[in-house]
Design a protein that fits this description.
Largest sheet: 6 strands, mixed
Helix content: 25-40%
Structural class: alpha/beta
Number of helices: 7
Strand content: 25-35%
């Protein structure tokens, strides 16, 4: 669920410093990513659920702003703020990965009327066609002006904290150490 825009500067710097390093970006559930980190298959995991297990070094990475969106032709586009009662009259388009994260429970609206997609691109396409509304990280929307953004009156949160996690009992490659240093330094700003 984390937008790649959070990583573009770091990835560019790693590529310049270590031009022959292979980088693999993978999306998955936090539990599966951390299991692969623990097994040594991954060196760095960025995620949006805190896990303070002792075999990992975890620190805050960034705060993601969340936006409630619909197409400009959708009935909700008339509102700058909408109640749960109003929102629940229309389908919510959910990316399955988002639904699996407990952290999104803080920002999800209560609705029984949901459509599910396998990725955020499909979610954005359905919403742009007027199928319903969605909750997305604002950074994902920066390149998409095709959406009306509104506030949810009963929302309990509008940001999601993200974390960077590395193995605390395994030394990394020079490229991994450099990337981790850059990411951790970026999280302090």
């Amino acid at each position: 669920m984390l937008p790649l825009s959070l990583l573009k500067d770091t990835l560019k710097q790693v590529q310049q410093q270590f031009p022959f390093t292979q980088v693999r970006l993978v999306r998955g559930t936090v539990s599966s990513l951390l299991a692969k980190l623990n097994d040594g298959e991954y060196q760095i995991v960025l995620h949006d659920e805190f896990n303070g297990a002792s075999e990992f070094e975890t620190q805050p990475f960034s705060e993601l702003s969340i936006s409630y969106i619909c197409s400009h032709s959708h009935p909700l586009s008339q509102y700058n703020a909408a109640s749960n009662k109003l929102i629940s009259q229309y389908p919510q388009v959910l990316c399955r990965a988002t639904r699996a994260h407990s952290v999104f429970g803080e920002v999800q609206a209560p609705t029984e009327n949901s459509w599910f997609t396998d990725n955020s691109s499909d979610t954005l396409q359905l919403v742009s066609k007027g199928v319903g509304w969605a909750i997305m990280p604002t950074a994902v929307l920066d390149a998409h002006s095709a959406f009306h953004q509104f506030q949810r009156e009963e929302a309990t949160g509008s940001t999601i904290r993200t974390y960077i996690t590395t193995s605390s009992n395994r030394a990394g490659t020079p490229a991994q150490e450099y990337a981790t240093t850059l990411l951790k330094a970026g999280s302090e700003h």
